[in-house]
Specification:
The structure holds two protein chains of two kinds.
Chain A: H1 5-25, H2 29-53, H3 58-88
Chain B: H1 4-24, H2 32-52, H3 56-81, H4 93-115, H5 132-141, H6 144-164
Classes of the chains: A mainly alpha, B mainly alpha.
């Protein structure tokens, strides 16, 4: 069977769901961040496959911007995690409940 | 006998999904370092998928930026924090049910969307190359303003990180 748009979208969909499961179920802030990266990558894969099957390069430009923004987001997020760790000595989400009512 | 690129697609897709699953839930190790290493493998096999879609420039950027910069940043932070192994805590019933419901809902939406995908024209009839030349022409002709805005965004992120990682924030 010829590999088509559906196959790439199915891979992207499964990867996104894996990332979502990770964000919900893991308790370590760093691993949650890695799962977020997984979800962003799934979106990138969907955009690149749409770009290829629609003969349009705009999707790849969008992926380029997503990669840039993701790099900025990771750097800021990791700096926040380091600052948080200095204050609380923990990187577990269950120890970070000071905003809970 | 399927064509060679199709076999490559299945190989890379299986690698991506297996390594992605091992990032999220590794039965042998709960250490964040293992997750980061499997994230590298996921990203490299995804770069292989990009090459199959003729997005050569993005495949290179994916490896350089993600596998090179982002993962190294993750590993630096993991070693800086000196984390203990994530112990198995009791999973709360409410969290489990909420997670399963949300994942199931999103998956059902995706399956609905996937069923409506029409079989598109064969891209080989009008090939489109995502190489550096064509991508650069488009980026600097049509997308010059977003490109500059993104560079400002990177500057802002850099300033923010420097400010956040100062030892005494007053």
């Amino acid at each position: 069977m010829q590999v088509g748009l559906q196959h790439y979208l199915a891979v992207s969909m499964l990867l996104f769901s894996l990332g979502l499961i990770g964000v919900i179920s893991r308790r370590n802030v760093l691993v949650i961040y890695m799962s977020l990266e997984l979800m962003l990558n799934a979106a990138n894969l969907a955009l690149v496959s749409f770009s290829w099957f629609n003969h349009n390069l705009d999707g790849q430009i969008l992926v380029f911007f997503i990669i840039t923004v993701a790099a900025a987001e990771v750097s800021v997020g990791l700096a926040l995690i380091v600052a948080l760790f200095r204050k609380r000595r923990s990187a577990h989400v269950e120890d970070l409940t000071s905003m809970k009512l | 006998m399927p064509a060679f690129p199709d076999i490559l697609f299945y190989v890379f897709a299986a690698l991506t999904l297996i390594c992605g699953a091992l990032v999220v839930a590794n039965p042998f190790s709960r250490s964040p370092v293992t997750s980061a290493m499997f994230l590298v493998l996921t990203i490299i096999s995804m770069a292989g998928l990009f090459v199959l879609l003729h997005a050569f420039f993005l495949a290179a950027v994916q490896i350089i930026v993600y596998a090179g910069a982002v993962i190294v940043l993750f590993l630096f932070v993991i070693m800086l924090l000196d984390l203990k192994e994530e112990e198995r805590r009791k999973i709360k019933l409410l969290g489990l049910v909420g997670g399963l419901i949300s994942v199931g809902a999103i998956l059902s939406i995706f399956f609905k969307a996937l069923a409506t995908v029409k079989a598109t024209a064969d891209p080989a009839t009008k090939p489109l190359e995502g190489d550096t030349h064509s991508l650069g022409m488009l980026l600097f002709n049509h997308y010059a303003l977003p490109f500059e805005v993104v560079s400002v965004l990177l500057l802002v992120a850099m300033i923010g990180v420097i400010l956040l990682s100062k030892r005494n924030l007053e």
